[in-house]
């Protein structure tokens, strides 16, 4: 059976290092509970700041700080409509990671049954 190491044996080490850096940057940006909650909410669609504050339950100073980090890392994009600023997820890798996290930690699971069928 072919292993992951075998599949990537010919993968250029510099390219691998670059990919590892990108992945670790993404995981670092997502590795904060407040930012993760914001990204989960934004994965459902675009939201303005006041909606995010209400739905996620993060106060304004922290919310602004965390949205700033997500913007800086280019994980979210914004648009302005009058006085409102709307946020949306702007990264396909973020959505892919969120799907895995949802499946592992949030999706309903069948009850454990220790009896063999």
TrEMBL record:
Keyword Transcription regulation carried by entry: yes
Bilayer-spanning residue ranges: 85-105
Keyword Signal appears in the UniProt entry: no
Pfam families: HTH_5
Recorded GO MF terms: DNA binding; DNA-binding transcription factor activity
Protein origin, superkingdom: Bacteria
Coiled coil region boundaries: none
PROSITE patterns xref list: HTH_ARSR_2
Matching InterPro entries: ArsR-like_HTH, HTH_ArsR_DNA-bd_dom, Metal_resp_trans_reg, WH-like_DNA-bd_sf, WH_DNA-bd_sf
Keywords associated with the record: DNA-binding, Membrane, Transcription, Transcription regulation, Transmembrane, Transmembrane helix
Name of protein: Metalloregulator ArsR/SmtB family transcription factor
PANTHER family cross-referenced by the UniProt entry: ARSENICAL RESISTANCE OPERON REPRESSOR ARSR-RELATED
HTH arsR-type domain residues: 15-109
């Amino acid at each position: 059976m072919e292993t992951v190491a075998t599949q990537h044996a010919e993968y250029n080490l510099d390219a691998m290092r670059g990919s590892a850096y990108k992945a670790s940057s993404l995981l670092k940006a997502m590795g904060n509970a407040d930012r993760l909650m914001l990204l989960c909410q934004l994965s459902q669609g675009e939201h303005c700041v006041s909606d995010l504050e209400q739905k996620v339950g993060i106060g304004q100073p922290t919310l602004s700080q965390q949205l700033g980090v997500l913007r800086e890392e280019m994980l979210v994009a914004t648009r302005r409509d009058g006085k409102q600023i709307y946020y949306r997820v702007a990264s396909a890798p973020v959505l892919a990671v969120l799907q895995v996290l949802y499946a592992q930690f949030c999706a309903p699971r069948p009850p454990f049954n220790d009896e063999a069928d």
